[in-house]
Design a protein that fits this description.
alpha/beta, three-stranded mixed sheet
Length: about 280
Amino acid sequence: MRLLVTGGAGFIGSHFVKRMLAAGEDVVVLDKFTYAGNPANLPPGVECHRGDIAVRENVDQLGRVEAIVNFAAETHVDRSILGPEDFVRTDVLGTLVLLQAARELSARFVHVSTDEVYGDVEPGWSSREDDPLRPSSPYSASKAGGDLQVLAGVRTFGVNASVTRGSNTYGPNQYPEKILPLFATNALDGDALPLYGDGRQVRDWLHVDDHCAAIELVLQEGRPGEVYNVAANEEHENAELARLIIEHLDTDPALIRHVEDRAGHDRRYSLDATRLRALGWE
């Protein structure tokens, strides 16, 4: 299978590229190579093109593919607050361009999204795929817009497309703006660990290899028009993560510094992954 992986030089995308190459697939990467896209994340010899998913000519130059998996996105909430326009362009318009290409190629399409589209989740509840979307930031709103374009494309045009919504993902080669790599590198350097607000925000943590296994399964077995939550049910408060990093690296607890909370900061994310597990994901 000739497989296009957009955003394939980024954190999760590059792990997925390596996984699919190991499975014997013919992989081509399209990446804009912004700050988070790094050619060093990719194995030598992989076919890779610089381009923007929101520009149809950049997509068409790659020729025929049998499947597209879309990791390309503007992703950081803080950056979306400072400059939301780029998020709408990539996460909504870019997704639509890929969807149109998939329709014309009769290609399978998997759109990789986020748990943040559900917004705050009350204690005792985990978001299900059919729950209302209540995004709280320009980032999560743009991702929700992309999700809805995909679902509309299935309904209106019959595109063979599915959506995955993953929880907070961690692992090697993650750009150090996210909490785990940021706090770990800061602790090693003796720099402050900036903890938003009271630090009681709860996130559900998922290793990148498990996330990629889920996306591969949805690519192969997922139903058109279905959304699949991806989560390991590892919920932890941000303050707990900070303490664990300090303890593990044997550094000074005084490095943890509480800072003003982020505007519109969600308190808790939690996903119900029953639908995905029914496909065989563990």
